[in-house]
Amino acid sequence: MTQRNTAAPGHIEYVLRLGDNALILGQRLSEWCGHAPVLEEDMALANTALDLIGQARLLLTHAGRLEGRGRDEDQLAFLRGERDYRNLTLAELPNEDFGRTVVRNFLFAAFQVPLYQRLTASSDAELAAVAAKSLKEARYHLSHAGEWVIRLGDGTDVSHDKAQAALDYLWPYTAEFFAANPIDDAVSAAGIGPAWHNLEADWEAAVVPVLVEATLTVPARTPFASYGKFGRHSEHMGHLLATMQTMQRTYPGAQW
Amino acid sequence: MYTQSLSIPDGEARGPKKVENPAYQAEFDAKIAAGGFIEAKDWMPEAYRKTLIRQISQHAHSEIVGMLPEGNWITRAPSLKRKAILLAKVQDEGGHGLYLYAAAETLGVSRDELYEALLSGKAKYSSIFNYPTLNWADIGVIGWLVDGAAIMNQIPLCKCSYGPYSRAMVRICKEESFHQRQGYDLLLAMMRGTPEQRDMVQDAVNRWWWPSIMMFGPHDKDSVHTETTRWGIKRISNDDLRQKFVDATVKQAEVLGVSLPDPDLKWNAERGHYDFGAIDWDEFWNVVQGHGQCNVDRLAARVKAWEDGAWVREAALEHARKRAVREKDAA
InterPro entries per the record (chain A) (predicted)? Predict the structure, then answer.
Protein backbone atom coordinates (compact mmCIF):
# COMPACT_ATOMS: atom_id res chain seq x y z
CA MET A 1 0.00 0.00 0.00
CA THR A 2 1.41 3.34 -0.99
CA GLN A 3 1.35 5.96 1.72
CA ARG A 4 2.25 9.60 1.69
CA ASN A 5 5.73 10.35 2.93
CA THR A 6 5.29 12.13 6.25
CA ALA A 7 8.73 11.28 7.62
CA ALA A 8 10.84 13.98 9.27
CA PRO A 9 13.86 15.20 7.27
CA GLY A 10 16.63 12.60 7.34
CA HIS A 11 14.44 9.95 8.97
CA ILE A 12 14.31 7.61 5.96
CA GLU A 13 17.99 8.04 5.20
CA TYR A 14 18.86 7.27 8.82
CA VAL A 15 16.81 4.07 8.83
CA LEU A 16 18.35 3.06 5.49
CA ARG A 17 21.80 3.45 7.02
CA LEU A 18 20.82 1.10 9.83
CA GLY A 19 19.18 -1.40 7.49
CA ASP A 20 21.95 -1.36 4.91
CA ASN A 21 24.65 -1.94 7.53
CA ALA A 22 22.85 -5.08 8.63
CA LEU A 23 22.07 -6.19 5.07
CA ILE A 24 25.55 -5.78 3.65
CA LEU A 25 27.45 -7.27 6.58
CA GLY A 26 24.92 -10.13 6.69
CA GLN A 27 25.55 -10.74 3.00
CA ARG A 28 29.32 -10.79 3.53
CA LEU A 29 29.13 -13.16 6.49
CA SER A 30 26.90 -15.56 4.59
CA GLU A 31 29.83 -16.19 2.22
CA TRP A 32 31.45 -18.18 5.05
CA CYS A 33 28.92 -21.00 4.92
CA GLY A 34 30.81 -24.29 4.91
CA HIS A 35 34.26 -22.71 4.92
CA ALA A 36 34.93 -21.77 8.57
CA PRO A 37 37.89 -23.08 10.62
CA VAL A 38 35.67 -25.22 12.90
CA LEU A 39 32.09 -26.42 12.66
CA GLU A 40 31.02 -24.34 15.66
CA GLU A 41 32.17 -21.19 13.85
CA ASP A 42 30.41 -22.21 10.65
CA MET A 43 27.26 -22.18 12.71
CA ALA A 44 28.11 -19.00 14.61
CA LEU A 45 28.88 -17.03 11.45
CA ALA A 46 25.72 -18.29 9.75
CA ASN A 47 23.80 -17.37 12.88
CA THR A 48 25.25 -13.87 12.96
CA ALA A 49 24.46 -13.46 9.26
CA LEU A 50 20.91 -14.64 9.92
CA ASP A 51 20.47 -12.14 12.77
CA LEU A 52 21.72 -9.33 10.56
CA ILE A 53 19.50 -10.30 7.62
CA GLY A 54 16.59 -10.41 10.07
CA GLN A 55 17.42 -6.89 11.27
CA ALA A 56 17.74 -5.71 7.66
CA ARG A 57 14.29 -7.06 6.81
CA LEU A 58 12.64 -5.15 9.64
CA LEU A 59 14.57 -1.95 9.03
CA LEU A 60 14.17 -1.91 5.26
CA THR A 61 10.47 -2.68 5.56
CA HIS A 62 10.21 0.26 7.94
CA ALA A 63 12.20 2.53 5.61
CA GLY A 64 9.89 1.56 2.75
CA ARG A 65 6.82 2.45 4.80
CA LEU A 66 8.30 5.78 5.84
CA GLU A 67 9.12 6.51 2.23
CA GLY A 68 5.54 5.81 1.19
CA ARG A 69 6.34 4.83 -2.40
CA GLY A 70 5.31 1.21 -1.97
CA ARG A 71 8.82 -0.25 -1.92
CA ASP A 72 9.12 -3.39 0.21
CA GLU A 73 12.19 -4.95 1.84
CA ASP A 74 13.18 -6.80 -1.33
CA GLN A 75 12.83 -3.82 -3.64
CA LEU A 76 15.07 -1.87 -1.30
CA ALA A 77 17.52 -4.71 -0.77
CA PHE A 78 17.89 -5.81 -4.37
CA LEU A 79 16.84 -3.07 -6.74
CA ARG A 80 18.71 0.06 -5.76
CA GLY A 81 21.78 1.33 -7.55
CA GLU A 82 25.08 1.30 -5.70
CA ARG A 83 24.98 5.01 -4.85
CA ASP A 84 21.66 4.55 -3.07
CA TYR A 85 23.01 2.11 -0.50
CA ARG A 86 23.82 3.78 2.81
CA ASN A 87 25.91 1.19 4.64
CA LEU A 88 29.24 1.90 6.28
CA THR A 89 32.12 0.99 3.98
CA LEU A 90 33.47 -1.34 6.67
CA ALA A 91 30.49 -3.67 6.16
CA GLU A 92 31.17 -4.23 2.46
CA LEU A 93 34.90 -5.01 2.64
CA PRO A 94 35.82 -8.58 1.68
CA ASN A 95 36.04 -11.18 4.46
CA GLU A 96 39.67 -11.96 3.60
CA ASP A 97 40.24 -14.47 6.40
CA PHE A 98 38.76 -15.49 9.73
CA GLY A 99 40.90 -12.89 11.52
CA ARG A 100 39.62 -9.95 9.53
CA THR A 101 36.09 -11.34 9.74
CA VAL A 102 35.99 -11.50 13.53
CA VAL A 103 37.84 -8.22 14.04
CA ARG A 104 35.32 -6.53 11.75
CA ASN A 105 32.38 -8.17 13.55
CA PHE A 106 33.84 -6.95 16.82
CA LEU A 107 34.37 -3.34 15.70
CA PHE A 108 30.91 -3.27 14.14
CA ALA A 109 29.01 -4.90 17.02
CA ALA A 110 30.73 -2.53 19.46
CA PHE A 111 29.13 0.27 17.43
CA GLN A 112 25.73 -1.39 17.04
CA VAL A 113 25.31 -2.01 20.78
CA PRO A 114 25.35 1.63 21.99
CA LEU A 115 23.44 2.67 18.86
CA TYR A 116 20.61 0.19 19.44
CA GLN A 117 20.66 1.01 23.15
CA ARG A 118 19.91 4.66 22.37
CA LEU A 119 17.37 3.72 19.72
CA THR A 120 15.26 1.80 22.22
CA ALA A 121 14.17 5.29 23.39
CA SER A 122 13.43 6.52 19.86
CA SER A 123 10.39 8.71 19.23
CA ASP A 124 9.79 6.32 16.30
CA ALA A 125 8.03 3.46 18.13
CA GLU A 126 8.65 0.96 15.33
CA LEU A 127 12.36 1.75 15.31
CA ALA A 128 12.49 1.48 19.11
CA ALA A 129 10.94 -1.98 18.92
CA VAL A 130 13.37 -3.18 16.24
CA ALA A 131 16.28 -1.79 18.28
CA ALA A 132 15.14 -3.58 21.44
CA LYS A 133 15.00 -6.91 19.62
CA SER A 134 18.27 -6.34 17.77
CA LEU A 135 20.18 -5.13 20.82
CA LYS A 136 20.16 -8.64 22.30
CA GLU A 137 21.63 -10.00 19.09
CA ALA A 138 24.28 -7.28 18.84
CA ARG A 139 25.37 -7.94 22.44
CA TYR A 140 25.85 -11.60 21.62
CA HIS A 141 27.79 -10.75 18.45
CA LEU A 142 30.00 -8.40 20.45
CA SER A 143 30.75 -10.99 23.06
CA HIS A 144 31.39 -13.76 20.54
CA ALA A 145 33.63 -11.68 18.29
CA GLY A 146 35.40 -10.11 21.28
CA GLU A 147 36.33 -13.54 22.60
CA TRP A 148 37.85 -14.42 19.26
CA VAL A 149 39.77 -11.13 19.08
CA ILE A 150 41.32 -12.05 22.43
CA ARG A 151 42.07 -15.64 21.41
CA LEU A 152 43.70 -14.57 18.17
CA GLY A 153 45.53 -11.54 19.56
CA ASP A 154 46.80 -13.44 22.59
CA GLY A 155 47.22 -16.79 20.83
CA THR A 156 50.21 -17.75 18.70
CA ASP A 157 52.66 -15.34 17.05
CA VAL A 158 51.01 -16.06 13.72
CA SER A 159 47.50 -15.34 14.98
CA HIS A 160 48.68 -12.21 16.78
CA ASP A 161 50.19 -10.86 13.56
CA LYS A 162 47.12 -11.70 11.54
CA ALA A 163 44.80 -10.09 14.09
CA GLN A 164 46.98 -6.98 14.22
CA ALA A 165 47.08 -6.78 10.42
CA ALA A 166 43.28 -7.09 10.32
CA LEU A 167 42.91 -4.36 12.92
CA ASP A 168 45.35 -2.07 11.09
CA TYR A 169 43.46 -2.61 7.85
CA LEU A 170 39.98 -2.06 9.30
CA TRP A 171 40.66 0.69 11.81
CA PRO A 172 40.74 3.61 9.34
CA TYR A 173 37.25 2.65 8.14
CA THR A 174 35.87 3.09 11.66
CA ALA A 175 36.35 6.87 11.39
CA GLU A 176 33.35 6.84 9.06
CA PHE A 177 31.11 5.59 11.90
CA PHE A 178 31.52 8.95 13.63
CA ALA A 179 31.67 11.41 10.72
CA ALA A 180 29.18 14.17 11.57
CA ASN A 181 26.53 15.09 9.01
CA PRO A 182 23.24 17.01 8.70
CA ILE A 183 21.12 13.84 8.61
CA ASP A 184 22.32 12.84 12.05
CA ASP A 185 21.76 16.35 13.35
CA ALA A 186 18.17 16.46 12.09
CA VAL A 187 17.31 12.97 13.32
CA SER A 188 18.88 13.60 16.68
CA ALA A 189 17.00 16.89 17.06
CA ALA A 190 13.72 15.09 16.30
CA GLY A 191 14.40 12.46 19.00
CA ILE A 192 14.47 9.68 16.43
CA GLY A 193 17.99 8.49 17.14
CA PRO A 194 21.42 9.48 18.30
CA ALA A 195 23.91 11.37 16.16
CA TRP A 196 26.54 8.71 15.54
CA HIS A 197 29.44 11.00 16.40
CA ASN A 198 28.11 11.01 19.95
CA LEU A 199 28.67 7.27 20.21
CA GLU A 200 32.43 7.39 19.79
CA ALA A 201 33.24 7.44 23.50
CA ASP A 202 31.01 4.42 24.20
CA TRP A 203 32.48 2.59 21.25
CA GLU A 204 36.03 3.19 22.39
CA ALA A 205 35.13 2.13 25.91
CA ALA A 206 33.93 -1.20 24.54
CA VAL A 207 36.72 -1.69 22.01
CA VAL A 208 39.95 -0.60 23.66
CA PRO A 209 39.96 -2.86 26.76
CA VAL A 210 39.39 -5.93 24.57
CA LEU A 211 42.20 -4.93 22.21
CA VAL A 212 44.47 -4.40 25.19
CA GLU A 213 43.58 -7.81 26.62
CA ALA A 214 44.26 -9.23 23.16
CA THR A 215 47.74 -7.64 23.33
CA LEU A 216 46.97 -5.70 20.15
CA THR A 217 48.15 -2.18 19.45
CA VAL A 218 45.36 0.33 18.96
CA PRO A 219 46.16 2.06 15.67
CA ALA A 220 46.45 5.84 15.51
CA ARG A 221 43.87 7.84 13.58
CA THR A 222 45.01 8.88 10.09
CA PRO A 223 43.56 11.33 7.54
CA PHE A 224 41.96 8.37 5.68
CA ALA A 225 38.23 8.80 5.16
CA SER A 226 35.55 6.57 3.62
CA TYR A 227 32.05 7.58 2.62
CA GLY A 228 29.81 4.52 2.29
CA LYS A 229 27.05 5.91 4.49
CA PHE A 230 26.83 8.88 2.13
CA GLY A 231 26.50 6.55 -0.87
CA ARG A 232 30.09 6.62 -2.11
CA HIS A 233 31.40 3.07 -1.73
CA SER A 234 34.57 1.05 -2.20
CA GLU A 235 35.39 -0.94 -5.35
CA HIS A 236 34.19 -4.05 -3.52
CA MET A 237 30.59 -2.92 -3.28
CA GLY A 238 29.72 -3.36 -6.96
CA HIS A 239 30.80 -6.99 -6.90
CA LEU A 240 28.85 -7.71 -3.74
CA LEU A 241 25.75 -6.16 -5.31
CA ALA A 242 26.25 -8.01 -8.60
CA THR A 243 26.06 -11.30 -6.72
CA MET A 244 23.31 -10.31 -4.32
CA GLN A 245 21.05 -8.68 -6.92
CA THR A 246 21.45 -11.21 -9.71
CA MET A 247 18.12 -13.02 -9.40
CA GLN A 248 16.02 -9.90 -8.92
CA ARG A 249 17.76 -8.17 -11.82
CA THR A 250 17.56 -11.19 -14.15
CA TYR A 251 13.90 -11.97 -13.46
CA PRO A 252 12.24 -8.59 -12.92
CA GLY A 253 8.93 -8.74 -11.12
CA ALA A 254 9.10 -12.44 -10.27
CA GLN A 255 7.85 -13.51 -6.84
CA TRP A 256 9.93 -15.99 -4.86
CA MET B 1 21.00 -34.99 6.60
CA TYR B 2 21.40 -37.52 4.59
CA THR B 3 22.26 -41.05 5.25
CA GLN B 4 22.95 -43.23 2.31
CA SER B 5 21.96 -46.79 2.77
CA LEU B 6 25.24 -48.17 1.80
CA SER B 7 27.92 -49.47 4.10
CA ILE B 8 31.31 -48.46 2.83
CA PRO B 9 34.32 -49.48 4.91
CA ASP B 10 36.32 -46.51 6.15
CA GLY B 11 39.12 -48.50 7.74
CA GLU B 12 39.70 -49.44 11.34
CA ALA B 13 37.93 -47.73 14.20
CA ARG B 14 40.47 -46.46 16.67
CA GLY B 15 38.32 -46.41 19.78
CA PRO B 16 39.05 -48.47 22.88
CA LYS B 17 38.98 -52.17 22.13
CA LYS B 18 36.85 -54.34 24.35
CA VAL B 19 37.31 -58.01 24.95
CA GLU B 20 34.80 -60.32 23.39
CA ASN B 21 32.99 -62.06 26.22
CA PRO B 22 30.27 -64.69 25.75
CA ALA B 23 28.36 -63.64 28.87
CA TYR B 24 28.33 -60.00 27.83
CA GLN B 25 27.45 -61.02 24.31
CA ALA B 26 24.42 -62.93 25.58
CA GLU B 27 23.30 -59.91 27.58
CA PHE B 28 23.75 -57.66 24.54
CA ASP B 29 21.82 -60.07 22.29
CA ALA B 30 18.99 -60.26 24.80
CA LYS B 31 18.74 -56.51 25.02
CA ILE B 32 18.62 -56.17 21.23
CA ALA B 33 16.04 -58.97 20.96
CA ALA B 34 13.85 -57.19 23.50
CA GLY B 35 14.05 -53.97 21.47
CA GLY B 36 16.07 -52.19 24.16
CA PHE B 37 18.73 -49.53 23.73
CA ILE B 38 22.47 -49.98 23.99
CA GLU B 39 24.10 -47.03 25.77
CA ALA B 40 27.63 -45.67 25.52
CA LYS B 41 28.81 -47.35 28.72
CA ASP B 42 27.32 -50.74 27.86
CA TRP B 43 29.40 -53.58 26.53
CA MET B 44 28.98 -54.04 22.79
CA PRO B 45 30.61 -56.30 20.20
CA GLU B 46 33.51 -54.67 18.42
CA ALA B 47 31.87 -55.10 15.01
CA TYR B 48 28.74 -53.30 16.27
CA ARG B 49 30.87 -50.42 17.51
CA LYS B 50 32.77 -50.15 14.23
CA THR B 51 29.64 -50.32 12.14
CA LEU B 52 28.06 -47.53 14.16
CA ILE B 53 31.15 -45.33 14.02
CA ARG B 54 31.20 -45.77 10.26
CA GLN B 55 27.51 -45.09 9.76
CA ILE B 56 27.20 -42.18 12.21
CA SER B 57 30.35 -40.46 10.94
CA GLN B 58 29.33 -40.88 7.30
CA HIS B 59 26.06 -39.28 8.26
CA ALA B 60 27.86 -36.42 10.09
CA HIS B 61 30.19 -35.86 7.13
CA SER B 62 27.16 -35.74 4.84
CA GLU B 63 25.68 -32.96 6.94
CA ILE B 64 28.74 -30.74 6.67
CA VAL B 65 29.50 -31.49 3.03
CA GLY B 66 25.80 -30.87 2.40
CA MET B 67 26.26 -27.27 3.53
CA LEU B 68 28.32 -26.61 0.39
CA PRO B 69 25.77 -27.08 -2.41
CA GLU B 70 23.27 -24.98 -0.45
CA GLY B 71 25.89 -22.41 0.52
CA ASN B 72 26.39 -21.98 -3.22
CA TRP B 73 23.07 -20.10 -3.32
CA ILE B 74 22.92 -18.16 -0.04
CA THR B 75 24.58 -15.06 -1.48
CA ARG B 76 22.23 -15.17 -4.52
CA ALA B 77 18.96 -15.98 -2.76
CA PRO B 78 16.25 -14.04 -4.60
CA SER B 79 14.51 -12.53 -1.56
CA LEU B 80 15.53 -11.69 1.99
CA LYS B 81 12.97 -14.13 3.36
CA ARG B 82 14.44 -16.99 1.31
CA LYS B 83 17.97 -15.95 2.25
CA ALA B 84 17.03 -16.07 5.93
CA ILE B 85 15.36 -19.49 5.56
CA LEU B 86 18.40 -20.90 3.79
CA LEU B 87 20.80 -19.49 6.38
CA ALA B 88 18.72 -21.06 9.13
CA LYS B 89 18.69 -24.36 7.26
CA VAL B 90 22.44 -24.61 6.77
CA GLN B 91 22.87 -23.71 10.41
CA ASP B 92 20.59 -26.62 11.34
CA GLU B 93 22.73 -28.87 9.18
CA GLY B 94 25.87 -27.77 10.99
CA GLY B 95 24.00 -28.57 14.21
CA HIS B 96 23.10 -32.05 12.95
CA GLY B 97 26.77 -32.56 12.14
CA LEU B 98 27.64 -31.61 15.71
CA TYR B 99 25.13 -33.95 17.39
CA LEU B 100 26.23 -36.77 15.14
CA TYR B 101 29.95 -36.25 15.75
CA ALA B 102 29.12 -36.15 19.45
CA ALA B 103 27.16 -39.42 19.12
CA ALA B 104 30.11 -41.00 17.31
CA GLU B 105 32.48 -39.74 20.03
CA THR B 106 30.55 -41.78 22.61
CA LEU B 107 31.89 -44.82 20.76
CA GLY B 108 35.50 -43.91 21.50
CA VAL B 109 36.64 -41.96 18.46
CA SER B 110 37.46 -38.24 18.27
CA ARG B 111 35.95 -35.67 15.93
CA ASP B 112 39.46 -34.85 14.66
CA GLU B 113 40.05 -38.48 13.72
CA LEU B 114 36.75 -38.58 11.88
CA TYR B 115 37.58 -35.33 10.09
CA GLU B 116 40.91 -36.68 9.07
CA ALA B 117 39.19 -39.70 7.54
CA LEU B 118 36.86 -37.40 5.60
CA LEU B 119 39.58 -35.05 4.37
CA SER B 120 41.90 -37.86 3.32
CA GLY B 121 39.08 -39.30 1.21
CA LYS B 122 39.00 -42.47 3.31
CA ALA B 123 35.55 -41.81 4.76
CA LYS B 124 32.48 -41.43 2.58
CA TYR B 125 29.58 -39.01 2.70
CA SER B 126 26.27 -39.14 0.90
CA SER B 127 26.85 -39.12 -2.85
CA ILE B 128 23.89 -36.84 -3.40
CA PHE B 129 26.10 -33.86 -2.53
CA ASN B 130 28.37 -34.59 -5.44
CA TYR B 131 25.69 -33.21 -7.74
CA PRO B 132 25.79 -29.46 -8.49
CA THR B 133 23.15 -26.85 -7.55
CA LEU B 134 22.60 -25.05 -10.83
CA ASN B 135 19.54 -22.89 -10.36
CA TRP B 136 17.56 -21.49 -7.43
CA ALA B 137 14.93 -24.22 -7.71
CA ASP B 138 17.66 -26.74 -6.81
CA ILE B 139 17.47 -25.36 -3.28
CA GLY B 140 13.76 -26.18 -3.13
CA VAL B 141 14.22 -29.58 -4.74
CA ILE B 142 16.96 -30.49 -2.26
CA GLY B 143 14.49 -29.73 0.52
CA TRP B 144 11.63 -31.59 -1.11
CA LEU B 145 13.32 -34.66 -2.62
CA VAL B 146 16.72 -34.98 -0.94
CA ASP B 147 15.59 -34.12 2.56
CA GLY B 148 12.42 -36.09 1.86
CA ALA B 149 14.41 -39.20 0.96
CA ALA B 150 16.67 -38.60 3.95
CA ILE B 151 13.66 -38.47 6.27
CA MET B 152 12.38 -41.80 4.90
CA ASN B 153 15.81 -43.28 5.59
CA GLN B 154 16.12 -41.71 9.00
CA ILE B 155 12.75 -42.19 10.66
CA PRO B 156 13.53 -45.88 11.27
CA LEU B 157 16.87 -44.80 12.78
CA CYS B 158 14.99 -42.95 15.54
CA LYS B 159 14.30 -46.46 16.86
CA CYS B 160 17.75 -47.87 16.19
CA SER B 161 19.36 -49.85 18.99
CA TYR B 162 22.14 -47.40 19.87
CA GLY B 163 20.69 -44.84 22.31
CA PRO B 164 22.84 -41.74 21.49
CA TYR B 165 22.29 -42.21 17.73
CA SER B 166 18.60 -42.84 18.14
CA ARG B 167 18.15 -39.69 20.25
CA ALA B 168 20.14 -37.55 17.80
CA MET B 169 17.96 -38.86 15.00
CA VAL B 170 14.72 -37.90 16.76
CA ARG B 171 15.82 -34.28 16.85
CA ILE B 172 17.27 -34.33 13.35
CA CYS B 173 14.12 -35.83 11.83
CA LYS B 174 11.98 -33.05 13.29
CA GLU B 175 14.18 -30.39 11.73
CA GLU B 176 14.40 -32.26 8.43
CA SER B 177 10.61 -32.39 8.11
CA PHE B 178 10.59 -28.65 8.54
CA HIS B 179 13.23 -28.28 5.82
CA GLN B 180 11.23 -30.49 3.51
CA ARG B 181 8.13 -28.34 3.92
CA GLN B 182 10.15 -25.19 3.34
CA GLY B 183 11.65 -26.68 0.17
CA TYR B 184 8.23 -27.60 -1.13
CA ASP B 185 6.92 -24.13 -0.31
CA LEU B 186 9.79 -22.56 -2.27
CA LEU B 187 8.83 -24.69 -5.28
CA LEU B 188 5.11 -23.90 -4.95
CA ALA B 189 5.97 -20.19 -5.03
CA MET B 190 8.03 -20.67 -8.19
CA MET B 191 5.34 -22.79 -9.86
CA ARG B 192 2.84 -19.97 -9.26
CA GLY B 193 5.28 -17.58 -10.95
CA THR B 194 6.52 -16.98 -14.48
CA PRO B 195 7.14 -19.61 -17.20
CA GLU B 196 10.88 -19.17 -16.60
CA GLN B 197 10.44 -19.98 -12.93
CA ARG B 198 8.39 -23.10 -13.74
CA ASP B 199 11.09 -24.19 -16.20
CA MET B 200 13.71 -23.86 -13.49
CA VAL B 201 11.68 -26.11 -11.19
CA GLN B 202 11.19 -28.75 -13.88
CA ASP B 203 14.88 -28.62 -14.77
CA ALA B 204 15.85 -29.11 -11.12
CA VAL B 205 13.38 -32.00 -10.68
CA ASN B 206 14.74 -33.65 -13.84
CA ARG B 207 18.27 -33.53 -12.49
CA TRP B 208 17.56 -34.54 -8.85
CA TRP B 209 14.88 -37.24 -9.20
CA TRP B 210 17.09 -40.22 -9.99
CA PRO B 211 19.90 -39.27 -7.61
CA SER B 212 17.25 -38.91 -4.87
CA ILE B 213 15.87 -42.39 -5.32
CA MET B 214 19.41 -43.74 -5.46
CA MET B 215 19.86 -42.39 -1.92
CA PHE B 216 18.12 -45.53 -0.63
CA GLY B 217 21.08 -47.57 -1.81
CA PRO B 218 21.32 -50.76 -3.88
CA HIS B 219 18.39 -53.11 -4.32
CA ASP B 220 17.83 -55.54 -1.47
CA LYS B 221 19.04 -58.44 -3.58
CA ASP B 222 22.39 -56.66 -4.04
CA SER B 223 22.70 -55.32 -0.54
CA VAL B 224 24.10 -57.10 2.49
CA HIS B 225 22.65 -55.78 5.71
CA THR B 226 22.18 -58.96 7.76
CA GLU B 227 24.23 -57.77 10.72
CA THR B 228 22.86 -54.25 10.84
CA THR B 229 19.35 -55.69 10.66
CA ARG B 230 20.06 -58.24 13.38
CA TRP B 231 21.57 -55.51 15.57
CA GLY B 232 18.53 -53.29 15.23
CA ILE B 233 20.41 -50.55 13.38
CA LYS B 234 18.68 -51.03 10.05
CA ARG B 235 15.00 -51.77 10.44
CA ILE B 236 13.47 -51.39 6.97
CA SER B 237 14.99 -52.57 3.68
CA ASN B 238 16.30 -50.24 0.98
CA ASP B 239 13.66 -51.23 -1.55
CA ASP B 240 10.80 -50.87 0.91
CA LEU B 241 11.95 -47.38 1.87
CA ARG B 242 12.43 -46.42 -1.76
CA GLN B 243 8.94 -47.60 -2.66
CA LYS B 244 7.47 -45.65 0.22
CA PHE B 245 9.28 -42.54 -0.97
CA VAL B 246 8.15 -42.92 -4.59
CA ASP B 247 4.55 -43.52 -3.54
CA ALA B 248 4.51 -40.39 -1.39
CA THR B 249 6.34 -38.21 -3.88
CA VAL B 250 4.30 -38.89 -7.02
CA LYS B 251 1.25 -37.22 -5.49
CA GLN B 252 3.31 -34.26 -4.30
CA ALA B 253 4.68 -33.81 -7.82
CA GLU B 254 1.13 -33.75 -9.19
CA VAL B 255 0.09 -31.04 -6.73
CA LEU B 256 3.18 -29.08 -7.65
CA GLY B 257 2.52 -29.49 -11.36
CA VAL B 258 5.85 -31.01 -12.37
CA SER B 259 6.52 -34.25 -14.18
CA LEU B 260 8.95 -36.85 -12.86
CA PRO B 261 11.51 -37.92 -15.45
CA ASP B 262 10.57 -41.60 -15.64
CA PRO B 263 8.35 -42.85 -18.49
CA ASP B 264 7.84 -46.13 -16.63
CA LEU B 265 6.40 -44.50 -13.54
CA LYS B 266 2.78 -45.68 -13.20
CA TRP B 267 0.28 -46.86 -10.64
CA ASN B 268 0.10 -50.62 -10.21
CA ALA B 269 -3.30 -51.38 -8.73
CA GLU B 270 -2.39 -55.01 -8.10
CA ARG B 271 0.63 -54.10 -5.93
CA GLY B 272 -0.97 -50.97 -4.53
CA HIS B 273 2.22 -49.07 -5.34
CA TYR B 274 3.78 -47.08 -8.14
CA ASP B 275 6.04 -49.03 -10.50
CA PHE B 276 9.12 -47.17 -11.63
CA GLY B 277 11.88 -47.59 -14.20
CA ALA B 278 15.30 -49.15 -13.90
CA ILE B 279 17.85 -47.22 -11.83
CA ASP B 280 21.17 -46.50 -13.53
CA TRP B 281 23.44 -48.19 -11.03
CA ASP B 282 26.52 -47.46 -13.12
CA GLU B 283 25.96 -43.79 -12.46
CA PHE B 284 25.42 -44.46 -8.77
CA TRP B 285 28.68 -46.40 -8.41
CA ASN B 286 30.58 -43.87 -10.52
CA VAL B 287 29.59 -41.08 -8.17
CA VAL B 288 30.23 -43.20 -5.06
CA GLN B 289 33.66 -44.01 -6.42
CA GLY B 290 34.59 -40.36 -6.90
CA HIS B 291 33.62 -39.59 -10.48
CA GLY B 292 30.61 -37.35 -9.94
CA GLN B 293 30.44 -33.72 -11.07
CA CYS B 294 31.46 -32.30 -7.71
CA ASN B 295 33.34 -35.01 -5.78
CA VAL B 296 36.69 -33.30 -6.27
CA ASP B 297 35.42 -29.77 -5.62
CA ARG B 298 33.44 -30.71 -2.50
CA LEU B 299 36.37 -32.44 -0.85
CA ALA B 300 38.77 -29.69 -1.92
CA ALA B 301 36.47 -27.10 -0.31
CA ARG B 302 36.46 -29.02 2.97
CA VAL B 303 40.23 -29.51 2.88
CA LYS B 304 40.79 -25.81 2.13
CA ALA B 305 38.52 -24.74 4.99
CA TRP B 306 40.40 -27.05 7.35
CA GLU B 307 43.85 -25.98 6.20
CA ASP B 308 43.02 -22.26 6.06
CA GLY B 309 41.59 -22.55 9.57
CA ALA B 310 44.61 -24.32 11.10
CA TRP B 311 46.12 -21.10 12.47
CA VAL B 312 42.80 -20.21 14.09
CA ARG B 313 42.50 -23.57 15.86
CA GLU B 314 46.13 -23.38 16.96
CA ALA B 315 45.55 -19.88 18.32
CA ALA B 316 42.52 -21.04 20.31
CA LEU B 317 44.51 -23.90 21.85
CA GLU B 318 47.51 -21.69 22.62
CA HIS B 319 45.33 -19.03 24.19
CA ALA B 320 43.60 -21.64 26.35
CA ARG B 321 47.01 -22.95 27.43
CA LYS B 322 48.25 -19.45 28.33
CA ARG B 323 45.08 -18.74 30.24
CA ALA B 324 45.37 -21.99 32.20
CA VAL B 325 48.99 -21.16 33.12
CA ARG B 326 47.98 -17.67 34.28
CA GLU B 327 45.11 -19.02 36.34
CA LYS B 328 47.42 -21.58 37.93
CA ASP B 329 50.03 -18.89 38.68
CA ALA B 330 47.38 -16.63 40.18
CA ALA B 331 46.03 -19.40 42.43
Answer: Aromatic_CoA_ox/epox, Ferritin-like, Ferritin-like_SF, PaaA_PaaC, PaaC
| Residue A256, in any domain of the structure | no
**Domain B22-330 classification at class level:** mainly alpha
Q: Has residue A5 been placed in a domain?
A: no
Q: Cβ of A96 under 8 Å from any chain B Cβ?
A: no
Cβ-defined contact of A37 to B194 (cutoff 8 Å) = no
**pTM metric for this prediction:** 0.94
The residue range of the domain holding A234 is: 11-218+226-250
* Phi, psi for B271 (deg, rounded to 5): -80, -25
Q: Which residue of B has its CA nearest to A41?
A: B94
CA distance linking residue B241 with residue B140, whole number of Å: 22
* A116 Rama sector, left if φ>0, alpha if ψ -120 to 50, beta otherwise: alpha
Q: pLDDT of B29-42, one tens digit each?
A: 999 999 999 999 99
CATH of the domain at A213: 1.20.1260.10
The whole-angstrom separation of Cα B9 and Cα A14 is: 59
Q: Are B156 and B232 in contact (CB under 8 A)?
A: no
Domain membership flag for residue A129: yes
Tens-place pLDDT, residues A141-173: 999 999 999 999 999 999 999 999 999 999 999
Give me the interface pTM, i.e. the ipTM.
Answer: 0.97
Q: Which residues of B touch A248 (CB under 8 A)?
A: 78-79
